[in-house]
Every structure is written in structure tokens, then in C-alpha cells.
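ok trying again, last paste got cut off:
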Amino acid sequence: MFKRSFAAASKDRAGKARKVSKRSFRDDAKQRMREALNDATPDTSPSLGGGSPKLNSAIVTIAVGKDLRLFAAHEDVLARSPWFAEACQEQFFSSPGQRRITLSDEEPEIFSAVLEYLYKGDYYPRLLHDKKRDTWALEDVAADLTSNLDSKKTGGPAELATIYHHGVDDFILRDTVIYCSALRFALPDLQRLALRKQGLQTGIDVATIMRSARFAYANTPASDSRLRAHYLALIIRSRKTFKRSGTMQMEMEKGGTQLFFDLFVAMCNHIDDVVEFGQVSPSSKVLR
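nice, full thing came through this time. structure:
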């Protein structure tokens, strides 16, 4: 990779010159994207739109998860979600210190991401856009892994992409759960963000994908097909891996879910498209 250094010197208090460390062009690009994200506010975020929230509004307490972990948020921030706006309205006659919403079926880590999105327009790890290449990537978390986690417990990006869900009693994809929570709280922009982030995840094992797909089907209506379609496309695109998978074989034999009928239909459509493409001659393509 082409690297360029910037030989700049600055004076410290003692009057001595101090060299600036060399950085690659990619490092500089990432730093500029991070600075742009850090400067972003709900007012400037394309995800949130509208005006910035009033941070002097009433504080609402939210009890989340089976252990009822407590969160606090400004009412005007929560009201960006129609679901929370209605819930806060029900608390209108309660005294400011007594306003409380209980979400015992939500995971605290997931609600934390939702709350971060309501305040900042994104959630960790943030989505970075390289305007020059017009590509998207997830914020690099390698430094945080090194400093915050024990090396024996780290499994790389694939492990960071999952969360232990008490309702499933196993690990599933974090962005899938965030998508379903965004659907519940009527936050379509957060749904799109979670889906885009999940599309950037790699190295996920078949068992985790299948558990996550079942969760997606169980927590989305048939009318909301984007997340379901994502899993169908993923399985078809990676069919060589899934074809060799004992987990996939066991799931197919067990069956009994809408997922596998949809997968069958999607595979048939895929085959039909391939056959139709092979039967169309170059001349007929021009005539069409």
C-alpha cells in the first residue's frame, strides 16, 4: 500500500522540535470519518432528521430485561419513536420522578444500542462511509478488543457480531435483534441501519445463522420481508457451505417453519431465472 509521511515539527514548551508519527492514507481517511461522526448530532444525522432533541425535557426511567436493568432517557429523545411517544403519554400524569417504562422482554444490550441511536443517529460499532470509494465499513474495534477483553475470550469480528439472547437461550446475530426491536419501536431508519450493518458481517457459523433466521421469522410479520429476504439470499449465495452443513440438514429434516417453505420458493425462483437466462439467445435479448 502506498504510504506518505508528513514531516512536520511543532514546538513544545521547552522549545524542542517534536516529530509527528507517520500515518498511512487509510489511517487518515478513517480518522476523518471518525471525526465527522463524533461531530454529528441528531440534528445533522441523516438517520434521525428533524431538529435536535430538547435535553431539558423530563427524564423517564426504563427497566429492561429479566433483571430490570435501569436506563434513564429524556422524554423528547424517546418520543422520536412513536412507540415510546405513546408510552410516555400514558405516563403524562405521573410525577417526573415516577415516570417508568418496563421492557422485561428486551435485552439490555440491545436497548442500549437503540437508545444510543436515538441520541446519536448510530450505534456501536458505527458505520463508516468512504466517500472516495463509495463503500461502507464498520468502525474498527481492534484497539478496544486489545485493551478491554481477555485474549482467551475474544473470537474476532464474528463473536462481536453476536449476543446471548435469553429468550433463545443461545447466541444470535446482534443486528437481527436490533432490527426486530426497531420494528417494535417503529424506527424504520434504525431497521435499515441494522440490516446494512448485518450485511457487512462475515465469518458467521451456520448454526448461528440458522438460529438468527428463526428468530427473525418469529419476530417479524410476513409484511416486513426485508430481514427474511436477507437470510434467504444469504443461504442461497452460500449454498455450497450450507449444503455440507450437518446443522442445515438437521434443520431441514425437522422443518415445520415458514422459513424453509420460503427458502424452497426462493431456490425455485433462482433456478427458474438461471434456466430462463440459459434459454434466451443473444439475438432475442437484443429484441427484448
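cool. The two ends are 45 Å apart (CA to CA). Confidence is low (pLDDT under 50) at residues 1-21, 40-50, 142-155, 283-288.
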